[in-house]
Amino acid sequence: MRQPNFIVILADDLGYGDVGCNDSTHIRTPNIDRLAAEGARFTDFYASANVCTPSRAGLLTGRYAIRSGLAHEVLQPADTKGLPLSEVTIPKALKPDYATALFGKWHLGHVAPHFPPTSYGFDRFYGVPYSHDMRPLQVYEAEGESVTAHDGRVDMAKLTQRFFEQAMAFAEANRDRPFFILLALTAPHIPLVPNPDDLTGSAGGAYGEVVEEIDVNVGRLLEKLEALGIDGDTMVAFTSDNGPWFEGSSGPFRDRKGGGAWDGAFRVPFVARLPGRIPAGTVAGGLASNLDILPTLLSLAGLPAPAGVELDGLDVSAQLTTGQGPAHEEILLFNNNHVAGLRTDRWKLVARSYYRTYDAPLDALPLLFDMQADPGENYSVARLHPEALADMRERLAAARARYEPMADAFPPHVAPASAADHPD
Predict the structure, then answer these.
(1) Is the pLDDT of residue 422 over 60?
(2) Interatomic CA distance for residues 271 and 380, integer angstroms
(3) Which of 91, 136, 306, 405 has its Cβ near the most Cβ atoms within 10 Å?
(4) Are residues 368 and 361 in contact, defined by beta-carbon separation less than 8 angstroms?
(5) Average confidence score pLDDT of the chain
(6) Radius of gyration of the chain (CA)
(7) Which of these is catalytic: 21, 52, 328, 338?
(8) pLDDT one-digit tens code per residue, 235-244
(9) pLDDT for position 419
(10) Rounded CA gap, 275 and 194, in Å?
C-alpha cells in the first residue's frame, strides 16, 4: 500500500457552527459535509490558540506556540520575529518521502529568515505572508530559495479560487508520489469579498458567500482527485484556525475568536476523508486538537515521530479510523502566554476572560462547567462538585508551572505600528 497523500484545508476564522455537518442554520456546505459523511467528524476538536499565529504554529509543529515564542497575539507587519527554524514542521517531518506545498496564508514570519515558508520544509509556496487585511500586501511565489513577488493590487475576490487552483495543479504534478498540501485559506477572515463567479445566494450574506465559495472549491478539488485517479489515495481534511470573529457561528458554544478560554474561541470543525482507511460516517468524540495533525499524519504515512522533539499533540489515527482510541486527557487553552483554561472530557475550568479592554483573571470566582450537561458554559457548578474543582485547579496550576515560564526564553513582539492594527 502506498503512503497516502494529505491535503489539509485550513479556513481562517470559520466557526464551529458554520458547516452543515455541525448544524449550520444559514450556510450550505454540501461538499464539506460529504467529507464527514464519507469519512470522520470530530465533535470535540480544538484549535491550539484563540487567534491565528499561535494556532498555526501549533498545527505545523504539534507543539503549543508558547514553546516557539509565538503565543502572544499575532504577528503584525512591523514584527521581525517568526517561527524558529529549529522547529520540526509537518513538511520537514514528512521529508524525504513527500512533496510538500503551502498555498494561502503563512503568518508565521514575513522577514528573513522566517520567510518564505520554503525555509520550513515546503517545496513550493504561493500565497500571502499574513492576513489579507494587513498592509502592505502582495502575493508571493517561492520554490526553494527563489522568491517572486507579484506586482499590482491583490485581487481579493479571487484568492480562494487561486489557492485551490494552485493546490490542484500541485496534486496533478505530483500524482505519482506522495504529497502534502496545506491549503491555508484567507477566508472567511475579513475583508469579505465574494467571488462574482461563484455567487450562491447564501442566506449568510457576504460571510455565507465566501464560506459557500470555499465549499464549492472543495467539491472541485474532490472532482480533480477523482479525475487524476488518486482520490482513494488522498486524505482531505478540513478545519479552522480558531473560532469566528465579527460574523459566523460558534454553534452552541460561548464567545468567539480571541475570547479568553471560552469554547467558542477554540472549538472548531474537523472532518477528514480517506477512502478505504477512514470508514464512512465515523464520529469521534474524544478530545482532539490541531496539535494532533502532525503526529497523526506521520502515523498514517508509516513514519516515526520527530526524534528529540517533545510534542504536545497525540496520534489520533485510531479515532479517525474507528471513532475510538487515544484522546487527550486534558486540553490546555492559552490566552497569549497565560494558560487561561483547561478542558477534560467532562469538566471545563475557565480562569481568564475579557470585559471590554479589561483582561480579567477569574481564578477566584471560580468557573467550573459540566461540558456534558452544559456545553454552552452558562452555569458554574463549582459549588456542587468541590472534588472536581480541586482536581481542575491542581491541573491548571501544574500546566501554568510547566508552560508559562517558556515565554521568558523569547523576546516580545515589536509593538504594532498603529492603533489600527488588531488581532488577526
Answers:
(1) no
(2) 31
(3) 91
(4) no
(5) 96
(6) 20
(7) 52
(8) 999 999 999 9
(9) 34
(10) 32
Phi, psi dihedrals of residue 261, rounded to the nearest 5°: -115, 10
* CA separation for the pair 110, 361 (Å, rounded): 33
Q: Which is the catalytic residue, given 107, 110, 189, 328?
A: 107
Local confidence band at 423 (pLDDT 50, 70, 90 cut-offs):
very low
* Separation between Cα atoms, residue 240 and residue 313, nearest integer Å: 17
Question: What pLDDT is attached to residue 358?
Answer: 82
Residue 418 pLDDT greater than 60, yes or no: no
Q: What is the pLDDT of residue 417?
A: 43
Count of Cβ atoms closer than 10 Å to residue 410 Cβ: 17
Examine the residue annotation and report whether 107 is marked as an active-site residue of this protein.
yes
pLDDT tens-place string over residues 14-45: 999 999 999 999 999 999 999 999 999 999 99
Backbone angles phi, psi at 101, to 5 degrees: -155, 150
